[in-house]
Amino acid sequence: MAWLQPDTRFDADAWSAPVIGIAATLAEHDSGWHQHARSQLLYTRAGCTRLTFGDRISLLPPSRAAWIPGGLLHRAQMRQAVDYRSLYFDATLSAQLPQQPAIIGVGPLLQALLEPIAQAPFAHDWQAPRAGHQLALCVLEIAAAPVEPMELPLPRDPRIARCLPVAEQLPPELGELAQRSGLSVRTIGRLMQRDTGMGYQAWRQQWRLMRAMELLLLGHRVAHVALELGFSAESPFIAFFRSMVATTPAAFQRAESARAAG
């Protein structure tokens, strides 16, 4: 395992082992757009990471992992302090694992396997019986891990995409988007359905939910999150959040804190 400093350059593809593990604690870090031939499992022990792929934004909360297939162009943005582990798998192991990116749940067994594999030296003998069994079981657990709904598909149509702000800013109302893009409301709905599988209003609500979760995971108060997302007060925001995930923002925040601590 390599402990990485913020300015350390690391190339997982430069090694021949079937799996390579690293660890780091980074704050306010932006990886920039990059890709690697090896598939990556990025496990967040503490903190929150936003991952952007070509057609989606994913949120990686604590105690989950992002599966990133080899060759996929992506970007990781870490807010505050993020303590994470990364495993990089060669082509042979990657062939047994998902071919699409996803945020997956990390159960007790997978969590127990991640640390010793991440801590193994780059030259570790993965042919040894115990090491081979650990690695094989880890691969099986990743393949069987449940996918969590922590992603937002992005519109591909450039007329819509260029009118949407950066990820931290609330997307415009439908009428305003129509004015900015020069498209009719009906055309926007058709294009959004084609690109994201949902209408613009539903997509905007999903954006608000993702952003709300991110801000809550970063420790912001409920009142601040409500204001940030354009709600007139806490109560309509709480009602919105409960309607989307069947719990209140404060309960979600407490549960995620407990999950990260335990």
Describe this structure in words.
The chain is of the alpha+beta class and about 260 residues long. It has two domains: about 1-145, Sandwich (Jelly Rolls); about 155-260, Homeodomain-like (Arc Repressor Mutant, subunit A, Orthogonal Bundle). It has helices at about 90-95, 110-120, 130-145, 160, 175-180, 185-195, 200-215, 220-230, 235-245, 250-260, and strands at about 1-5, 20-30, 40-55, 55-60, 65-70, 75-90, 100-105, 150-155. Strands 1, 2, 3, 4, 5, 6, 7 and 8 form an eight-stranded mixed beta sheet that branches. Strand 3 (about 40-55) and strand 4 (about 55-60) form a beta hairpin. Helix 2 (about 110-120) packs across helix 3, helix 7 packs across helix 10 and helix 8 crosses helix 9 (about 235-245). The model has no long low-confidence stretch (mean pLDDT about 90). Keywords: DNA-binding, Transcription, Transcription regulation. This is Helix-turn-helix transcriptional regulator. It comes from Stenotrophomonas indicatrix.
